[in-house]
Write a structure and sequence with these properties.
With about 575 residues, this protein is an all-alpha fold. The protein has helices spanning about 1-5, 15-20, 40-45, 45-55, 75-95, 115-120, 125-130, 165-180, 190-215, 225, 230-235, 240-255, 260-270, 275-280, 280-290, 295-305, 310-320, 325-350, 350-365, 370-380, 395-420, 425-440, 450-460, 465-475, 475-485, 495-520, and strands at about 100, 105-110, 145-150, 155. The chain is built from 26 helices and four strands.
Length: about 575
């Protein structure tokens, strides 16, 4: 009766209505719009999550109101998951900060009998405290020391990390010294240093999770794999790469929110911590080149011809009120270069030798055990592109081959991005570029796999597939540790380790193949269902594609029936 009265209000003078008027609304209530019905519901759309959800009562109901929880929002749940996994990661490394007697009444780290490998707790953070002379309070890049190389010759050494990573280590060491001066629980300085460094790295990974969740759009639960990745358990604190992932993820978030200058600043800062955030600028440029239209470039040519030459014309073009794709890419790249220089110049100018150490070592180092080049050598005995080298000889040919292979891979990825019938999503091309860099590089340190985690979740949010790859990649750590232990100490032969490296590389190649398939068949892209275009796209999201492409015909998009299976998303009005 009440429901009928709400739908059909009674006529004036109705006695029954007058009697009940104090109990009903004077008009039909507005609909409740607080349910986030467009949000992806993994317990109903993903078979793996549906099976796991039976632990907590099964999939979400058909009539459930989504997004009404006041405190336990998806983001807070994922941050809580991340805290648990980060705590477990610290526990996994804690075996390497155990203390024991040094035989003279003092304490030292218990790394006896290869404990760091047997317990699989190794972290670069611990030995770098002494190796980089941070235990002396020395300022990175200024401090020089001499090491005797494998060839018996003395070698001048400096801090070997990019500027922000090196300064992070220095600040953590200074905080450790300050801790020792306070009436607080005491331990070896290196132990205090490790724990302080871990706190900052944990916060950086939480920022990565937060930004990934914001970038996921309606598929917010995809970011749960960033928080719950097996790679976090193993490598969150192996090195300092979480700093770079935080800058990269927040830089992408700024780009997605159409703030190109802030995006460039954050990516430039990430490049000052590790190289890979700068690689993300390439896909942005390629997709913006594709989206730029002929009319705007014709206008630029007219300004260059009629309005005072190159400088004045470019200023007018860049000052255009419309935030065009090409202008946005230019602002981002310029801001990235500026922020990178702003961080590096204060170190490079007064301490040029120390600043160049990172680049020198990366040029002179040989193929690491993790690289595909060493894998081939371990199974075939191949001496490498340069043949047999002494430790002091740089692998010149290997450097050129690695660079050429990466450049060729980037050219192929750019061609895919420019010619695919529908514009690829930003995250898809970014994953392909970073994966190509790791696969062709002569160094793939184990923690580098963290670079791929947020990009993989955004580019290919298939939970079973990603969890399988992350598990394979994380498990490479176990034969790696026992290979480093040595066969003479009951370790494993090199081929046991390099064999798992092959599996990891094949898994990453498989992810790349699936992403390329979805670029050419956007109907299979789960992100683009329900009319979504590109949550990470920023100015590219819902932009017309293509609108009078200015590229040569060989590099223009080629429509195909498969791509037309998903209707193009209309541009914003």
């Amino acid at each position: 009766m009440i429901e009928q009265q709400l739908v059909n209000p009674p006529a004036a003078g109705d006695a029954e209505a007058d009697e009940n008027r104090g109990h009903t609304s004077p008009a039909v209530p507005a609909p409740d719009l607080r349910s986030a019905d467009r949000r992806d519901k993994p317990s109903r759309t993903d078979s793996l999550t549906a099976q796991l959800s039976t632990i907590v009562g099964g999939p979400v109901g058909d009539h459930a109101l989504i997004g009404r929880t006041r405190f336990w929002t998806p983001l807070r749940v994922m941050l809580a998951f991340a805290v648990v996994f980060l705590a477990l990661s610290w526990a996994g490394k804690a075996g390497c900060i155990q203390q024991t007697s040094d035989g003279a009444g003092g304490l030292t780290l218990d790394w006896n009998n290869g404990r760091q490998y047997v317990a699989m707790c190794y972290s670069d953070t611990v030995p770098l405290f002494g190796a980089e002379h941070l235990d002396e309070g020395a300022f990175p890049y200024k401090k020089q020391w001499t090491e005797i190389g494998a060839d018996g010759r003395p070698d001048a050494r400096y801090m070997e990390y990019p500027v922000l990573s090196g300064l992070y280590q220095y600040v953590a060491s200074q905080l450790a010294f300050a801790w020792k001066q306070l009436p607080l629980p005491d331990a070896l300085t290196v132990v205090v240093y490790f724990n302080i460094a871990v706190v900052g790295l944990a916060l950086a990974w939480l920022v990565t999770v937060w930004a990934s969740a914001r970038l996921s759009g309606r598929r917010v639960w995809d970011a749960a794999l960033v928080a719950l990745s097996p790679l976090v358990l193993v490598h969150a604190f192996t090195n300092f790469d979480a700093l770079a992932t935080a800058f990269a993820a927040t830089g992408l978030l700024a780009w997605a929110r159409r703030r190109p200058v802030l995006a460039g600043v954050l990516l430039g800062l990430g490049g000052a911590a590790k190289l890979y955030p700068l690689l993300l600028l390439g896909p942005i440029l390629v997709l913006c080149l594709r989206t730029e239209n002929r009319q705007r470039l014709t206008g630029l040519r007219e300004r260059l011809r009629d309005r005072g030459g190159i400088g004045h014309g470019l200023r007018e073009y860049l000052a255009d009120a419309q935030l065009s794709p090409l202008r946005s890419a230019g602002l981002t790249i310029t801001a990235a270069a500026g922020s990178w220089l702003l961080v590096n110049l204060p170190i490079a100018l007064p301490f040029s030798s120390g600043w160049r150490e990172f680049f020198r070592l990366n040029t002179e180092r040989h193929a690491d055990p993790d690289s595909i080049y060493n894998v081939i050598t371990s199974f075939t005995g191949w001496p490498g592109f340069d043949g047999t080298l002494t430790p002091s000889q740089p692998p010149t040919v290997l450097n050129l081959v690695s660079l050429a292979l990466f450049a060729a891979a980037c050219a192929v990825i750019a061609y895919i991005g420019l010619t695919a019938a529908r514009r690829p999503r930003v995250a898809q091309l970014m994953f392909l570029v970073v994966a190509a860099f790791l696969l062709t590089n002569k160094v793939w340190s184990p923690q580098y796999s963290l670079w791929l985690v947020p990009l993989a979740v955004l580019a290919l949010p298939h939970r079973r597939i990603l969890l399988a790859w992350m598990t394979i990649d994380a498990l490479v750590w176990f034969p790696r540790m026992y290979y480093y232990l040595g066969v003479d100490q009951k370790g494993v032969p090199e081929q046991w380790f390099t064999g798992t490296v092959i599996l990891r590389d094949l898994a990453v190649i498989g992810l790349c193949a699936l992403i390329v398939r979805q670029i050419y068949r956007p109907s299979e892209d789960v992100v683009r269902r329900d009319g979504t275009d590109d949550p990470v796209g920023g100015v590219l999201d819902r932009a017309a594609d293509p609108l009078l492409p200015w590229l040569p015909s060989a590099l223009r998009p080629h429509p195909t029936p498969l791509a037309s299976a998903v209707a193009p998303v209309p541009a914003h009005r």
